[in-house]
Amino acid sequence: MPSLITSYINGKSVAGTAGKLTSTNPAQIADVVAEVSLANEAEFAQAFAAAKSAQKAWAQTPAPRRGRVIAAVGKLVEANKEALAALVTREVGKPYAESLGEVQEIIDTCDFFLGEGRRLYGHTVPSEMPDKQLFTFRVPVGVAAIITAGNFPVAVPAWYLVPALLCGNAVVWKPAEYASALGDALTRLFVAGGVPAGVLNTVHADGATTYRALEAALEQAQLQKIGFTGSTEVGRRIGELAGRHLQTPCLELGGKNPLVVMPDADLDLAAEGALFSGFGTAGQRCTSLGVALVHDSVYDAFLSRFVSRVASAVIGDPTNRAVLYGPLLSSRFLESFEQWMAHIGPHHQVHGSTGRGRITAKNPRTGFVGDPEAGYYAHPSIVTGVRADDALYRNETFGPLVSVMRFSSFDEAIELANGHGYGLSSAIYTRNPVHAFQFRERVSAGMVSINNSTSGAEAHLPFGGNGKSGNGSRQSGVWVLDQFTRWQSTNWDYAGKLQKAQMDIEEP
Ligand code: UN1
Question: Top EC class per UniProt (predicted)?
Answer without folding.
Answer: oxidoreductase
